[in-house]
Fold this sequence. Notes:
Layout: E1 17-21, H1 25-30, E2 40-44, E3 49-51, E4 56-58, E5 65-67, E6 69-75, E7 91-98, E8 101-102, H2 103-112, H3 117-120, E9 126-128, E10 132-133, E11 144-149, E12 152-158, H4 166-176, E13 184-186, E14 194-196, E15 201-206, E16 210-218
Parallel strand pairs: 1-13, 3-9, 4-16
Antiparallel strand pairs: 1-2, 5-8, 5-14, 6-7, 6-13, 7-10, 11-12, 11-15, 15-16
Amino acid sequence: MASSKPLARFWEWGKNIVCVGRNYAEHAKEMGSVPPQEPIFFLKPSSAYVREGSPILRPYYCNNLHHEVELGVVIGKRAQAVAQEAAMEHVAGYALCLDMTARDTQEECKKKGLPWTLAKGFSSSCPVSDFVPKEKIPDPHKLKIWLKVNGKLRQEGETSSMIFSIPYLISYISEILTLEEGDLILTGSPKGVGSVQADDEIEAGIRDVLSMRLKIKPSEW
């Protein structure tokens, strides 16, 4: 897929991070929610990106930081009101992603009926792996994603368990907001989300494809 910018470094210039919530039934259950009838999504700013070699910074207001491992879909060409049948033509590739969540803050936001930005959009809340070209993953719905904290397995799930498929998500989201080249869709997290502390090490991966490691540090601001 031809691009005027290097999609292999989409995190340096991509505009939007669109995150899909509760897209695995078991995760919805562990969060005390019912599986959604239609996709739930929210946004992170591009400043949320962080790469292996830099730390995940826990916000100063957060006392319960959670990990959520997810498959990310990198958009390769503009998508507006795209039909499901054509949706995969707009995919350039994939990445492993973490949706880091200030869970205590999120719970307070929910109680007050407030947006989740404080809980989901802080700097370094979206760690991403290297870019994986579309051709290297023939079927993104046949992957196993996993996450360990300090060597202990916390999350492991099959992307075949997604409630809403990738073509459905692209079609649904693109009816509401235009997806641009370099944008990223986080497709939801399997069960097993949990808390991490300062100096913990997260290791996460897509089985037989790639992995990444990042450490948790308290915010310096």
